[in-house]
Amino acid sequence: MNVPDWHPTSPLYAGNAAYLEQFGDDALTPWLNQPLPGAAAGSDAAQVAVLRLINAYRYLGVRQADLDPLRRFEPPPTPELDPAHYGLTEADLTREFETGSLFGVERTTLADILQRLNNAYCGHVGVEYMHITDVARKRWLQERIESAQGRFGVSIDLKKQLLKRLTDAETLEKFLHTRHVGQKRFSLEGGESLIPLLDQVIARCARHGAKEIVMGMAHRGRINVLANIMGCSLESLYEEPLNGYPDSPLSGDVKYHKGFSSDIATPYGPVHLALAFNPSHLEIVHPVVRGSVRARQDRRGDVLGYEVVPVILHGDAALSGQGVVMESLNMSQTRGFRNGGAIHIVINNQIGFTTSDPRDVRSTLYCTDVAKMVEAPVLHVNGDDPEAVAFAVQTAVDFRYTFHKNCFIDLVCYRRHGHNEQDEPLATQPLMYRRIQAHPSTRVLYAQRLVDESVLSQSQVDDLVDVCRERLEHGESLSSPILSDFKATYGMDWGRFKHGDPGEVPTAISASRLDFLGERITTLQHEIELHSRVQKVLDDRRRMRAGELPVDWGYAENLAYASLLDVGYNVRVSGQDSARGTFFHRHAVWHDQKRERRQSGVYVPLEHIHGRQGDFTIIDSLLSEEAVLAFEYGYATADPDTLVVWEAQFGDFANGAQVVIDQFITSGEAKWGRLCGLTLMLPHGLEGQGPEHSSARLERYLQLCAQENIQVCVPTLPAQMFHLLRRQLVRPVRKPLVIMSPKSLLPSRRHLVAGGPEQRVVPASHRRSARATGCQTRGGVQRPRVVRSRSGPGGARAGRGRAGAGGAALSLPGDGVQGRPGCLSAGRDIRLGTGRTDEPGCVVPDPAPSQSLRTRWAPFPLCRPARGGRAGVGLRIPPSGGTGSAVERCVGESL
């Protein structure tokens, strides 16, 4: 293949594909270098050419910016930044032109214009913002960037502070390298500018009025941030055993996953800092932080996000590689999930583990290109210039507070060691690491710069290192002053849940109060016209309140929410179809069929109970499981007094959020001591919708049960749902609750209650029917029976309930065929261990003698099939020899 094979039309012409594949970008150079038409020597044409040149620098000047500390590659040719590309010549350099919207000068020579553009856009800060469609935001950034001209106006005091924080960061890494030889710490060396960067973020946010800052980050540099920013002592990080203390029920976690919180003093008042715990799944902490921030903002009434700010740190490879980033950015400006904008910081060490070739890392030019999907500006900054870093921080924070939008800082740096300190990076990146070995550290470069500027003497620079080392030797903190006696006004007391009794608590409410709540949630306060089917639901609920119809699932659930709101608790429900309910059963939001605007004609009954009620929020979320569930987990871990519910559209969709379930919900308490009362509703059951929508994968949740970490419940009665939801907040315990919602029972009444219309959610006069269905009655209240299975080092031991040693039973709804009281109609019964029940109506075969640790599926009849029904299928799990489950399960009418 040779030059004649090129079709002289456009490199975008499909016929040139083979040519470009062989010769690469070089084939485009002649075409790109052709002058654009219309830039002739005429004065008007030359003026237009100058304005196009100015615009080109705003778009493409970043490509010529000096961003890489290692300077491994020459900047790619950018013909659009060459005046000759627009027909301008050297003779035009001395001519004066109108500058249009170029900030700072209205008319000047072309040479001066070029100088200004190069200073603004091609220095140590490169800016991408022309993808923003809002003119006000673009103009704001233009003025900030073009007025600075690459001269950042850093004061003498700030210069000294920047060097001090660089010294703290570098000295800490060297101290740990010699004191804890061979231990993984995922060093920050090469990216030490992160510490002064965060220092400036905190101070700048505090200047704008921030009271709390919640941060999330992966493992790179985490120990340095914990020690130098958060004030966490090194002793607490390095003295704790990797697997937790022997006498603690917690398993513990590695030190570079740890979170921490503290209150620090700033010139503008105290600020509460919180660093979220994070597993090795890198970007998954992003939505968790956003959820935690939203909970704190809601508690303060901070609608625009002035007082609570999310600061999210990314790695360059993870930012462009993990899909949860896109999901989190996509929801960041939606009504139910917005925070008033986040400050994103990319620790861009230009390598992901051992992958550094741009042809393999991503399909975009920059790792931050994902930010353009939400029109967030990106400030790329050379990590070896702390003053440019400080300028980028000031611009990003001010932008966030001005427009309440996301903003990205791309800290271009490098990684001095391998992925961890035990790696040998030269084996796979010899070219990069030869340059790194010869490259002085950021502290050394900036110290020399300040000495050259006569800001400090060399002896003063050396003294900074000595003082820092001495403080570390004595176990002192290098962070800003920590306030030990500061009492946060909006802080939450989690201590009341640390040793709470997980036993039964009264979840009943009086019949008169229930009647009042039923009246409030079935009364239209405004004149709207409902859809005929929704009107039928409302009419039926009024009849349920009057006792003319049995209570159905949707009404019982709404009553539970109303009863919590009534006493001041908050309720937050989210999911892809939560307001209506996937199965047309909830109807927590009513829509006027005659409305003409989105902003009107919507009525939420649960917002109109009385003037002193709690806040009710229900959100039809974006089409995401992983990010939304992680957001709700973050919310629940920041507010124990809000019932936080996430509902999957179908239960099996939760597998799209398996990372959140495995790494946070079921294990967060064991690893990090993080309590959480999040509720998951997973519609479940075989109703002919195919294999994908039939199972919420109950077996997975049972397998995750250990040390009473979660509750897995399968309710079959509306009353059970009512008490389950109330119990989540009423009792002094916060545990995640997983509800297998029976799909066939949600939209219908006739399959819900075995005893007929007389069974009510408040069953003060219906104890007989409650006993008939095998449910516990306490204090006149029908509630699901609870069976616990506990295990310890010595093996399984029997808990409360009627199961045998180490056993637990739970029932699942069947296919909707109503059977006799006392037997689960055409259902399934799952029994764990070798325990058995002797309830009437259930036929249980003798347990198998096998003691194998494997889970064995064994089909056998567990209960007499109802008329027209069929027997269920059971799952037998033999004892696990001391590693058994600890589960709390709700048992319906078959137990």
Describe the structure.
With 895 residues, this protein is α/β, with parallel strands linked by helices. The strands form seven sheets. Strands 3-9-10-8-7-4-6-5 form an eight-stranded mixed beta sheet. A six-stranded parallel beta sheet has the order 14-11-15-16-18-17, with helices on both faces. Strands 23-24-26-25 form a four-stranded mixed beta sheet, with no helix packed on it. The relative contact order is 0.08. It is built from 26 helices and 27 strands. The longest helix is centred in the N-terminal third of the chain and has 24 residues, at 156-179. It is globular, with a radius of gyration of 32 Å. The chain is 32% helix and 14% strand.
Key structural traits:
single chain; about 900 residues; alpha/beta; eight-stranded mixed beta sheet; 26 helices; about 15% strand; globular
Rg over C-alpha atoms, rounded to the nearest angstrom: 32 Å
Task: Give a short account of the largest sheet.
Answer: 8 strands, mixed
Oligomeric category: single chain
Mean pLDDT: 79
Helix content: 25-40%
Strands, count = 27
Low-confidence stretches: 37-42, 749-895
From the N-terminal CA to the C-terminal CA, the straight-line distance is: 78 Å
- Strand % is 5-15%
User: What structural category do the secondary elements indicate?
Assistant: alpha/beta
Task: Provide a compact summary of the structure.
The protein has 895 residues and is of the alpha/beta class.
Task: Reconstruct the topology from this structure.
Layout: H1 17-23, H2 29-32, H3 43-60, E1 96-98, E2 107-109, H4 110-121, E3 125-128, H5 135-148, H6 156-179, H7 194-207, E4 212-216, H8 222-228, H9 234-239, E5 260-264, E6 271-275, H10 285-300, E7 308-315, H11 316-321, H12 323-331, E8 343-348, H13 358-361, E9 378-382, H14 386-403, E10 407-412, H15 430-438, H16 442-452, H17 458-473, H18 511-520, H19 532-545, H20 553-566, E11 570-575, E12 590-591, E13 602-603, E14 616-620, H21 626-638, E15 642-647, H22 658-665, H23 668-672, E16 679-684, H24 698-703, E17 711-713, H25 718-730, E18 737-742, H26 767-772, E19 776-778, E20 781-783, E21 785-792, E22 795-798, E23 808-812, E24 828-832, E25 856-857, E26 875-877, E27 887-891
Parallel strand pairs: 4-6, 4-7, 7-8, 8-10, 9-10, 11-14, 11-15, 15-16, 16-18, 17-18, 24-26
Antiparallel strand pairs: 1-2, 3-9, 5-6, 12-13, 19-20, 21-22, 21-27, 23-24, 25-26
